[in-house]
Amino acid sequence: MKKVICILVLSLFLFNCSKSDDDNSSATFLEKYDGTVWYSDDDGMYYRIVNNLNNPREIYWSNIDCYNYISFEFDPFTTIDSNDTTFQYTIHFPGEGGPFDVTTLTVTGNSLKVETKFFEDVGVLDYSITFNFTKSSVDVDSLIKCEY
Is the confidence at residue 43, as pLDDT, over 50? Predict the structure, then answer.
C-alpha cells in the first residue's frame, strides 16, 4: 500500500511539471517575456520587452539625472522571425540590395543578449554591436525621463 501511494504522489508531481512545461512552450518570445526588464551595468541601460510586433522593445538609457527613453515603431521594411527563445527583426532600408540591420534578442536564464549586425550590402557585414543584460525587477515606469 505504501508503494502505491508513493507512485501516485510521484506521478502527480511528474504530470504537473510536464503540463506547465507544455503551457510555456506554446508561448511566443514576446508573450513569454512581455514586460520583463533587463539591465546592463556596463551601459547604464534598461531594456523592456513588450508584446507588440510593431514596437517590441523600450530602452531607458542613463543620462546624468534622468533616462533617455527610446522606443521605435517598425516600418513596412521590417521583417520578423521569432521562436520561444529568440526574437529577430531585420530592418531593410530602401534601395535595391541596400543596407539593412539584423537584431537578435536571445534569452538564456536570467540573461538577455541583444546583437545587432549592420550590413552594407547583402552578405557584406559592416560591423556589429552586442549588449548583454541581466534580468531586473526595477519598475522602469518610475524612472525619471529626460525632457527635451
Answer: yes
